[in-house]
Amino acid sequence: MDTAPGDTAPDETVHERDTRRLGELLEETRVAMPGVQVLFGFLLAVPFQQRFTSLSDLERGMYIVALLSAAAATALFITPTAVHRLRFRHRDKAFTVRIGNRLLIGALSMLLLSMNSAVFVVASLVLDGPAPWVLTAASAGLFVALWFGVALLRRETVGGGGGPGGGGDPPGRRP
User: Looking at residue 29, what DSSP letter applies?
Assistant: First the structure.
């Protein structure tokens, strides 16, 4: 068997498993995309605000990081759909799921960077001294703990999972 424990029903075929995994992957993308699109839209509008000209060089740099990482997150979130559309007649669902899993983890990483860069810009506009850095570090720590730490800790305690980007298969056992 080439799946993580508990990942396959006893009577589920490889094709059924791959179909289910692909559906789950695409559903996760549908959940995350609206938030990324709203963030990206707001970031695109920021330079047209009157106060944008008063940003320091550091704040402008962090804004650019936020904007570009939101764009990267958008691209990474949409790519599994494009891969599926281009490969769907080639009976290549296992590849689509495997690469899609890695792309979504990358997208979450870019979204984490974008959101926390935006937190820094806003915090630096309303707070002085080290407070913007402290708030950004706390925010980033929360995102890392919730988005990655919970799942990685669970993987360590129950085993399986195949590592980051592994698509749920144990190491060395890819479909």
Answer: H
